[in-house]
Design a protein that fits this description.
- The structure is a single chain.
- The chain is α+β, with helices and mostly antiparallel strands.
- The protein has two domains: 95 residues; 238 residues, Bira Bifunctional Protein, Domain 2 (BirA Bifunctional Protein, domain 2).
- Helices cover 42% and strands 18% of the residues.
- The termini are far apart.
- It binds phenylalanine.
- The site of phenylalanine has 11 residues, from strand 9 and strand 10.
Length: 357
């Protein structure tokens, strides 16, 4: 019995020394917890010493019990102290270390859209004429034959109508109601000349339709139309306005020329060419230029003096009033401006193509 007291005392003394050193040497909290378990756990050293208590004589049991409890509390206190020290050290190391970059690369904003090149060029053209005092008007894309051809003095069955391969919408029944997809924006001339009285200066832009389809023609394309009617309007006014327009669009230095041409609703009629902006003689690039085909000129619009017959058909006195008119294809202007080789690119709408404008 006395042996048990001795063995217990000796065991506790040895344990006291041992766990002190081991706890202080524990490198981290996990190691520290393992050490604590080796003392206080089910199979721990203190737990096995505790079993000796049963053999201690009853009169010394209280005393020895307190001794064991004292050691147990000390183990707990040491454990806590070491745990806190380890945590403080870990925190200090973390703070001293180079800062962690916790940011992710930002989400790229969705690419910003912009107006289609056709819309950009159309607005630019309309803006130039607005600056020159032209007012804007609108006309429908599904139109009466009357407004698209008849009032513009296209004679019935005249071969000139073959110039504009037409999409007919309604042909049977009442001749007055024959309808088609407008083949040009000149229907706005028929409408405005019939609805208003001179003086007037009007521009209009929009979609038109013809049955042709190749690298430079699309069955749907866009035009800008303009006309000015007043007393005393001459070909000189036409030349002045269209030369100013061409120079604002292509630059002040751009050469401009007028060539005789035929449209049933003008007399005389002309086409306007602008000096090719893609090549030049001095640089030796003219001969091989694919855009102007070596001519040095780009055809940009049709124009002429409004035919007296058109004025009469629209109820305007052709003895008193004269006027000029012009029309141009927007796709063509855009293709020339940006060097686009195939008109279809403008309608396929691939983002990689459109992003270039
Ligand atoms: N309407 C003609 C075309 O589409 C262009 C034009 C308009 C010509 C006005 C002369 C005057 O080809």
């Amino acid at each position: 019995m006395a042996d048990a007291v001795e063995a217990l005392s000796a065991g506790l003394a040895a344990l006291g020394r041992q766990f002190h050193e081991q706890f202080e040497a524990a490198p981290d909290e996990a190691a520290l917890r393992a050490l604590r378990a080796s003392v206080l756990g089910k199979k721990g050293e203190l737990t096995s010493l505790l079993k000796l208590l049963a053999q201690v004589p009853p009169e010394r049991r209280k005393e020895m019990g307190e001794l064991v409890n004292g050691v147990k509390q000390e183990v707990e206190a040491r454990f806590e102290a070491r745990r806190e020290a380890l945590a403080r050290a870990a925190r200090a190391a973390e703070l001293a270390a180079p800062p962690l970059d916790l940011t992710l690369p930002g989400r790229a904003p969705a690419p910003r859209g912009h107006l289609h090149p056709i819309t950009q060029v159309r607005w630019e053209v309309l803006d130039i004429f607005a600056q020159l005092g032209f007012e804007q008007a609108w006309g429908p894309e599904v139109e009466l034959e009357l407004n698209n051809f008849e009032k513009l003095a296209f004679p019935a069955e005249h071969p000139a109508m073959d110039m504009q391969d037409t999409f007919w919408v309604r042909v049977g029944g009442d001749d007055q109601l024959r309808t088609l997809l407008r083949t040009h924006t000149s229907n706005v001339q028929s409408r405005e000349l019939s609805a208003r009285r001179p003086p007037m200066a009007i521009v209009s832009g929009g979609a038109v339709y013809r049955r042709d389809d190749d690298v430079t023609h699309s069955p749907m394309f866009h035009q800008v139309e303009g006309f000015l009617v007043d007393e005393g309007v001459s070909f000189a006014h036409l030349k002045g306005v269209l030369t100013t327009f061409a120079r604002r669009l292509y630059g002040e230095a751009a050469p401009v020329r007028f060539r005789p041409s035929y449209f049933p609703f003008v007399e005389p009629g002309a086409e306007v060419d602008v000096g090719c902006v893609f090549c030049d003689v001095a640089a030796g690039t003219r001969a091989g230029c694919r855009v102007c085909k070596g001519t040095g000129w780009l055809e940009v619009l049709g124009c002429g003096m409004v035919h007296p017959e058109v004025l009469e058909r629209c109820g305007i006195d052709s003895e008193r009033f004269t006027g000029f008119a012009f029309g141009m294809g927007i796709e063509r202007l855009a293709m020339l401006r940006y060097g686009i080789p195939d008109i279809r690119l403008l309608f396929e709408n691939h983002p990689r193509f459109l992003a270039q404008f």
